[in-house]
């Protein structure tokens, strides 16, 4: 007898295996998922843009003979000593505590060799970082862990952190297993407790107060150092305008792909806007105030390649900042640790339990044995190489578009592959002269 | 001899430059700021044992981030007075607005009047003595140091407290999450006596109650989520 045809087993799109696994995990533990990194979901990104290149109407520059400048100066509005960088790519703020001392040293070494700056994070400034960073930006965070006037004075710039792309409106949590004696001492806390980082500053609320806070910081540092204001990708037009109103020299804008040491997965994936969607509103705010290029815009969140750098600059940024990519360059999520990732229940490329302090690569840990796995000199050279490649790629694209400085890249050099990217970047959909929302259509 | 700086004629930048240089040089000359008129960020970032007197009331962040300096405000202080101070003494003859002594790492902040909300927020080692009352959410996330209140405390005192010690002589409207009354042991009496003496406060240590962290929120536990 012939067998009756069966319906093929059909998985639900809504209740996917991944979704169901998370439901089971939540039911078993009663706690939300905490992880590091940025948004993993697919969002419109720089990959959805293309450069048009030179043609009849523009002529290119010779790649091996004609110069294409990459330098950038940050903090030209008020600071007596703006920061001069050789490349428009900086290292984003990442804390000692979240990262090992060796990792911080490696970031400083790599950034310095490439001619750029690195940035402290929650938890204060370490000697490893200051000693190996020619240009160091000191973050002024809500927790004020390790905050002291001596470090402010020996920093090259100050970054007031209002928000970050992974969690606009959220604070942080450094779990007890990473609060070693050294970390605890720097943060004035007991060893081994879960350390919370506040979501807003303890002594100011809103842009009017921030203006006075910036005045205080300038008075303490003799008006020498650039003051950055870092915002998460929430309301980029208004947040940028208010940061300028408060007196920022530089606005750092971090989209939702920007990483964090640890926060709730629901926060990372469901709060904030993609980096691509944030740039044009921020640039528009600067232009409306007559401050574009006078207040510099640094964009971060998902920058991986020289193409990403070039596209961010073409949309109006003055520089970009990298965090996750810098860690990968140091050795984070390297396939050589695959067997150890598997022991932790994960795999290369997916390891994101940075808060647990068991990083096989020795980067997001305070475990002395794991830390030894990262040679700061070698890792620093890897970061230098990576930064050089990003710069070369960015220059290649700029020359192809006929520009002798990467800052001459402009939206007219771009087209978009998707309607979403066209709308967010406000550049024409490929093959058209139109983007959604463009007036006159 | 003293050096007088008139805020009605001298720009803030010049006032602070003068004070910072004198502090750095360990000047023995007292400095007096007159016509303060609520100016912001006065006498900030001093890095040395300078004596400064401010005649009148101040705006935001007076005496912020100082080390070793002695600053006296003969008036009231705006928000964030002595924020993140590292050492030295700051005395407010009148009242203090919000966030007094926020994130302070050391030294003594002596407020002769009342202090508004969030006094001692996130304090990290500073000693604060308030001769009057303090507002709500004071000592929120306070990590280290001592907060002494001769009067009453508002709502949610010591919410999410770490290891700071809180001493209150009057009533406490309510305690914040994880803040509890604790036994006043002899070492606390001695500590408090010393603080009261340094602040010139007319009170006996035995009249105070001590509050501190129950330490139940030190490591995240889902069963305590409702406490937050």
UniProtKB/TrEMBL annotation, chain A:
<dbReference type="Pfam" id="PF01645">
    <property type="entry name" value="Glu_synthase"/>
</dbReference>
<dbReference type="InterPro" id="IPR002932">
    <property type="entry name" value="Glu_synthdom"/>
</dbReference>
<protein>
    <submittedName>
        <fullName>FMN-binding glutamate synthase family protein</fullName>
    </submittedName>
</protein>
<feature type="region of interest" description="Disordered">
    <location>
        <begin position="112"/>
        <end position="131"/>
    </location>
</feature>
<keyword id="KW-0560">Oxidoreductase</keyword>
<dbReference type="InterPro" id="IPR013785">
    <property type="entry name" value="Aldolase_TIM"/>
</dbReference>
<comment type="similarity">
    <text>Belongs to the glutamate synthase family.</text>
</comment>
<dbReference type="InterPro" id="IPR024188">
    <property type="entry name" value="GltB"/>
</dbReference>
<feature type="domain" description="Glutamate synthase">
    <location>
        <begin position="75"/>
        <end position="331"/>
    </location>
</feature>
<dbReference type="InterPro" id="IPR043578">
    <property type="entry name" value="GltB_archl_type"/>
</dbReference>
<feature type="domain" description="Glutamate synthase">
    <location>
        <begin position="355"/>
        <end position="404"/>
    </location>
</feature>
<dbReference type="GO" id="GO:0006537">
    <property type="term" value="P:glutamate biosynthetic process"/>
</dbReference>
<dbReference type="GO" id="GO:0015930">
    <property type="term" value="F:glutamate synthase activity"/>
</dbReference>
């Amino acid at each position: 007898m012939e067998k009756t045809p069966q319906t093929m087993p059909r998985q639900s799109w809504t209740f996917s295996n991944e979704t169901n696994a998370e439901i089971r995990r939540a039911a078993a533990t009663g706690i939300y998922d905490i992880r590091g990194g940025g948004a993993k979901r697919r969002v419109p990104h720089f990959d959805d843009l293309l450069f048009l290149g030179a043609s009849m109407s523009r002529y290119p520059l010779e790649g091996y003979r004609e110069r294409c400048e990459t330098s950038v100066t940050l903090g030209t509005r008020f600071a007596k000593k703006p920061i001069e960088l050789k490349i428009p790519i900086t290292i984003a703020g990442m804390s000692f505590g979240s990262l090992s001392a060796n990792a911080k040293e490696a970031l400083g070494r790599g950034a310095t060799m490439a001619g750029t700056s690195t940035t402290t994070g929650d938890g204060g400034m370490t000697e490893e970082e200051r000693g190996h960073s020619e240009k160091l930006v000191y973050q002024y965070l809500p927790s004020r862990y390790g905050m002291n006037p001596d470090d402010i004075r020996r920093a090259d710039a100050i970054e007031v952190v209002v928000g970050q792309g992974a969690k606009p409106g959220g604070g942080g949590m450094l779990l007890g297993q990473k609060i070693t004696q050294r970390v605890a001492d720097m943060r004035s806390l007991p060893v081994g407790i879960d350390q919370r980082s506040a979501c807003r500053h303890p002594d100011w609320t809103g842009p009017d107060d921030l203006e006075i806070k910036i005045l205080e910081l300038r008075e303490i540092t003799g008006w020498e150092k650039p003051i950055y204001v870092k915002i998460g990708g929430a309301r980029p037009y208004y947040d940028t305008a208010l940061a300028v109103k408060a007196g920022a020299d530089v606005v750092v804008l971090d989209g939702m792909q920007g990483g964090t040491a640890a926060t709730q997965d629901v926060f990372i994936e469901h709060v904030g806007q993609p980096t691509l969607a944030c740039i044009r509103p921020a640039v528009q705010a600067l232009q409306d105030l007559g401050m574009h290029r006078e207040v510099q815009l640094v964009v971060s969140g998902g920058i991986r390649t020289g193409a990403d750098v070039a596209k961010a600059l073409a949309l109006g940024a003055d520089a970009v900042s990298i965090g996750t990519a810098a860690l990968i360059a140091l050795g984070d999520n390297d396939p050589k640790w695959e067997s150890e990732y598997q022991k932790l229940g994960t795999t290369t490329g997916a390891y994101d339990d940075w808060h647990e302090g068991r990083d096989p690569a020795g980067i997001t840990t305070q475990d002395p044995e794991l830390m030894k796995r990262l040679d700061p000199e070698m890792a620093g050279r890897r970061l230098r190489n990576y930064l050089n490649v990003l710069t070369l790629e960015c220059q290649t694209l700029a020359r192809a578009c006929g520009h002798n400085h990467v800052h001459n890249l402009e939206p007219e050099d771009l087209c978009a592959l998707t309607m979403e990217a066209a709308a967010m970047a406000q550049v024409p959909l490929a093959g058209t002269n139109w983007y959604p929302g463009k007036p006159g259509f | 001899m003293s050096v007088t700086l008139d805020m009605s004629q001298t720009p803030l930048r010049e006032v602070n430059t003068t004070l910072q240089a004198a502090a750095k040089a360990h000047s023995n000359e007292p400095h007096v700021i007159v016509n303060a008129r609520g100016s912001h960020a006065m006498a900030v970032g001093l890095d040395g044992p300078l004596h400064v007197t401010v005649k009148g009331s101040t705006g935001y962040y007076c005496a912020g981030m100082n080390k070793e300096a002695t600053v006296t405000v003969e008036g009231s202080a705006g928000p964030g007075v002595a924020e993140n101070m590292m050492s030295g003494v700051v005395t407010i003859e009148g009242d203090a607005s919000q966030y007094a002594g926020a994130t302070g790492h050391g030294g003594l902040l002596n407020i002769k009047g009342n202090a508004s909300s969030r006094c001692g927020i996130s304090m990290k080692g500073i000693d604060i003595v308030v001769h009057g009352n303090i507002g709500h959410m004071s000592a929120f996330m306070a990590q280290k140091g001592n907060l002494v209140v001769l009067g009453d405390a508002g709502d949610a005192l010591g919410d999410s407290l770490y290891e700071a010690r809180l001493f209150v002589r009057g009533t406490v409207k309510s305690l914040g999450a994880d803040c509890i009354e604790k036994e006043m042991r002899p070492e606390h009496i001695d500590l408090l006596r010393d603080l009261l003496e340094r602040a010139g406060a007319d009170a006996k240590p035995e009249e105070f109650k001590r509050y501190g962290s129950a330490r139940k929120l030190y490591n995240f536990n889902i069963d305590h989520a409702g406490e937050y």
